[in-house]
Amino acid sequence: MKPRFNKNWKLRIAGAALLTVSAIAVRPVASATESVEMWAGHQVVFGETDVPVLGKRETRSDSYVLARVTKNTGRITFVQQACRVDFKEVLGAKVRIPERALLSLPAATISFSKDGELLRAAPWNVGWGRQDVDRDGKPGLTVNVDASVCGGELYIASDTRSAAVGKLIDNGEGMMGKISVRVQQKVLDTDSACLKMFSADSDETQNGGFVYRRVQDNATCETLLRHPWPIEAKIKR
After folding, report:
1. What domains, with CATH codes, occur in the chain?
2. Which of residues 106 and 129 earns the better pLDDT score?
């Protein structure tokens, strides 16, 4: 039996992935005391959305990223791009962000500093407003919603603030840790009268974890996606 929708249902996008998978075009230059490596990463974050009658439903997003990692004394900096993002289906609705759009997102640079035995990242922000970030002629970022009952395109603005803590693994050639993200999203418009009725702005905190592992220096998203992803974050709610 298909769920019945009403106009109070808020269709929310699992937007934490939009933050940490953001791409950047600047290549860091290593000094004599720095080293630069390529790492593949997998991040999982969880949130919740309220559905009338049925109650809270869990959201989950999986981000698969490729990062250029710069190391120097006491600091590790990640400059990364998204290779793929998967969103958990909620009540028959599946959210997709086109790969072309992922590569158009604003820059995200994550800098970890030593804090005892841990590495702690200073909180960082990524966001955009009405500007056409994916250059498709629509405001904000275009997100596709596939659903038999109510599908179409959402055009969203987003502002996210994240904090993370981790530790090195694999003899310093990987990292694992936890991340917390506050996601504020505004629906700018849609191409569907149904989505316009059911979608709403959102402000929520999402939590999860991540893991990275060093890969070949010439690795690209295209080459990595031809095979099973080289690292898996085994994160549970």
Report:
1. 16-90+102-127+163-182+201-224 (2.40.160)
2. 129
